[in-house]
Design goal:
Layout: E1 8-13, H1 17-29, E2 32-37, H2 43-50, E3 54-57, H3 66-76, E4 80-85, H4 90-98, E5 103-106, H5 111-125, E6 139-142, E7 145-148, E8 153-156, E9 159-160, H6 165-175, E10 182-183, H7 184-191, H8 200-214, E11 228-231, E12 235-238, E13 245-246
Parallel strand pairs: 1-2, 1-3, 3-4, 4-5
Antiparallel strand pairs: 6-7, 6-13, 7-8, 8-9, 10-12, 11-12
Helix pairs in contact: 6-8
């Protein structure tokens, strides 16, 4: 917190000193500010005081359950969360995504891949789209859900719905392509970026998160159907029903 800076902050939560040195030196060389927590203690306070854009989170920490830490971070912040872990089981990846992680990178990893993941996450949490939005932003209503694409704000029954940047980026793809089949590969490429096309669990988990936040209990819309329709082995369709964009 030395003062105003254009450098992006990265919080590295990792207890392996070799990985800490490797990641920190490469990120600093690329003009990132790096804050390190070696045991996970005080991470929530660091996020509040240092305001990093992304946290690189190891799951196997000496004093803290990495999964629970991911949950706590996501409950309190929209910061980008990239899990960097030696745990390679798909169940671990799905669990981390369900808890709000934006990405999951397994060890060992190449520094170029890590940098690509960081940059992809930064593009999602700092989108350039608002600068291109028309003066009268489109608002789409689906049942009691109102989605303001210009303000990046969602309400349900008049109450705000908190979406992470990744969740909103996914919702934007659906809302701007009503009725169209969006394949897993298309969604993954547009939301997460090139190179993610085979990570179908990302789309599956995040669609489930959107449904849980936007649809009434049991995942049913007022007309008896789901807003986001699964096309088996293909992808998804957004079916807004009678809802239509407001404005011109």
């Amino acid at each position: 917190m030395a003062g105003p800076s254009d450098r992006t902050g990265i919080l590295l939560v990792e207890d392996d000193p070799n990985i800490v040195d490797l990641v920190r030196s490469n990120l600093v060389a690329r003009h990132f500010d790096v804050i390190v927590s070696r045991d996970g203690q005080g991470v929530l306070q660091l996020i509040e005081t240092e305001s990093p854009a992304v946290v690189l989170l190891d799951l196997m920490l000496p004093d803290v359950d990495g999964f629970e830490l991911a949950r706590s971070i996501r409950e309190r912040s929209a910061i980008g969360i990239i899990v960097v872990s030696a745990r390679r089981a798909e169940t671990d990846k799905v669990r981390a995504l369900n808890l709000g992680a934006d990405d999951y990178l397994t060890k060992p990893f190449g520094i170029d891949e890590l940098l690509a993941r960081v940059n992809a996450t930064l593009r999602r949490i700092r989108p350039s789209a608002p600068a291109e939005v028309s003066e009268e932003p489109t608002v789409v209503t689906v049942g009691d859900v109102a989605i303001d694409l210009g303000a990046q704000r969602v309400t349900r029954g008049g109450s705000p719905v908190h979406l992470t940047p990744t969740e909103f980026a996914l919702l934007r793809e659906f809302v701007t392509n009503p009725g169209k089949l969006l394949t897993h590969a298309t969604l993954l490429r547009r939301v997460w970026g090139p190179g993610y096309e085979t990570q179908t669990e990302y789309a599956r988990v995040y669609v489930a998160r959107l449904r849980a936040k936007l649809e009434p209990p049991a995942g049913r819309a007022p007309d008896g159907g789901s807003f986001i329709v699964t096309e088996p082995r293909s992808g998804y369709r957004f079916e807004p029903g009678v809802a239509a964009p407001e404005g011109p």
